């Protein structure tokens, strides 16, 4: 079977695009980013910022949050970084949530994940490296 060069080039270009990292844009500024809140019930250690929007920072529970005097962020002994809710830092979070949704759509459409069925669905006590998880 002969394959036309333009068709082969198109197939190779499409395949290499699937291998490119997912561009998180501003969502990449957060270790955890959620639209519906974040809860911990045990010893937790998060390195990086945590954000939740469109809900308020009160949607981040179990972290023992302390609101900063500026009222623009919260802190926690469990988080090496800052914790933000839509009521504290809404413009930046709105953009990050939109970028997260775009990144999710991109990743969900990829056929070649780096990791599949990680932990059989139980991710307790696991440390994640960069990659595409399905």
Explain what the structure shows.
Helices cover 25% and strands 20% of the residues. It contains two helices and eight strands.
- Work out the helix count: 2
Shape: globular
Compressed to H and E, one letter per element, the order equals HEEEEEEEEH
Class by alpha and beta content: alpha/beta
List how many beta strands DSSP finds: 8
Ordered list of secondary-structure elements with their pairings:
Layout: H1 5-19, E1 30-34, E2 38-39, E3 46-47, E4 49-52, E5 60-61, E6 66-67, E7 74-76, E8 79-85, H2 90-108
Parallel strand pairs: 1-4, 2-5, 3-8, 4-8
Antiparallel strand pairs: 6-7, 7-8
Keywords:
disordered N terminus, two-stranded parallel ribbon, 134 residues, 8 strands, alpha/beta, 6-stranded mixed β-sheet
Quick summary of this structure?
With 134 residues, the protein is of the alpha/beta class.
